[in-house]
Amino acid sequence: MEIKFTVLSRERNITKNFWSTPDINHIFERWVEENNLDVDGLVVIDTFCDTFDVSCLMKHSEDVEIFVQVIQDLFEYSTAKQLYDALSEKGDLECSEWLEFNEDFFRQNFTDPYESARATFFGNVNWNDEYVRFDGYNNLKTTNEVDYDFEKNEILKLWLNEFY
User: What is the pTM of this model?
Assistant: First the structure.
């Protein structure tokens, strides 16, 4: 994942573009030192990411040090699934509804064999799939891959709220 952001020094009216790297904190601090800038006079004026809608990061645009720390931490995650897995509170995300498709799923979710058969028959089930969830009609739907990218921007917002 690549994130680009632009910082403006209000006192000197200079801007600098930064790209996310594992050592973005050090790069940013070196730029501040080399230009003898006051961190309180800096503001993030633009941001771009090739993976997520990062406009929600702009809530930290006035506190550039926190913003840079968020970018540093976010750099550790390359996929929406990795961000999702880091969350302790998953919220009401659709991807949270998917469960492992195995015998334990049937034991835990059905006490009536008839209901189990009905949900399977009227659902969309491939016995080779790895994940299962209930659809809007309480029938089963399976998949081999959970689509975290569908909700990637909501996952990012939850991650930001939990950790910042």
Answer: 0.84
Its domain, for residue 121, covers 99-145
Q: Are strands 14-19 and 42-49 parallel, antiparallel or unpaired?
A: unpaired
Alpha-carbon torsion (115, 119, 120, 126), positive or negative: negative
Residue 153 is assigned to a structural domain of this protein:
no
pLDDT tens for the 164 residues of the chain, in order = 889 999 999 999 999 999 988 889 999 999 999 999 999 999 999 999 988 898 998 988 899 999 999 999 998 898 999 999 999 999 899 999 999 999 999 999 999 999 999 999 999 999 999 999 999 999 999 999 999 999 999 999 999 999 99
